[in-house]
Design brief:
The chain is α+β, with helices and mostly antiparallel strands and about 120 residues long. Helix content is about 25%, strand content about 15%. The protein has a domain of about 50 residues.
């Protein structure tokens, strides 16, 4: 689930597309929807001092549902979009599996994402 910051005066959807490309090289997507609210989470106390250089205590996120319309060969996490790699591996998973794949303090956010976006997922 690629994520990242929004540059000053940047539209959140354009930022999402930029971050997706910078982290995965993916450009072939179709927007399906978005969560109207901004989702937030706080870092656990023991993580605040080390995460992001101790500069932040949590995140506020805008989530978009995108359908990948390209071929898997488009995905490149080793040399993504001309940036340093942020991932060591990737895989397709059922949307219902996402909350179990993230660090516990982000789980509630991912549960909300699944609830909002499961209507877009292919059921297998």
């Amino acid at each position: 689930m690629p994520q990242g910051g929004i540059d000053e005066d940047e539209d959140s959807y354009k930022a999402a597309l930029r971050e997706l490309y910078e982290e995965t090289s993916i450009r072939s997507v179709q927007k399906l929807g978005e969560i109207a609210d901004w989702l937030t989470y706080d870092l656990p106390r023991e993580v605040v001092k080390t995460a992001w250089g101790g500069k932040y205590r949590g995140q506020k996120q805008k989530w978009y549902a995108l359908r990948f319309t390209g071929k898997d060969g488009e995905i490149n996490i080793d040399e993504p979009g001309g940036h340093k790699p942020e991932f060591v591996e990737w895989k397709w998973v059922a949307i219902r599996e996402l909350p179990d794949l993230v660090i516990p303090f982000k789980r509630q956010t991912y549960e909300r994402v699944v609830k909002e976006f499961q209507r877009f997922a292919r059921q297998t």
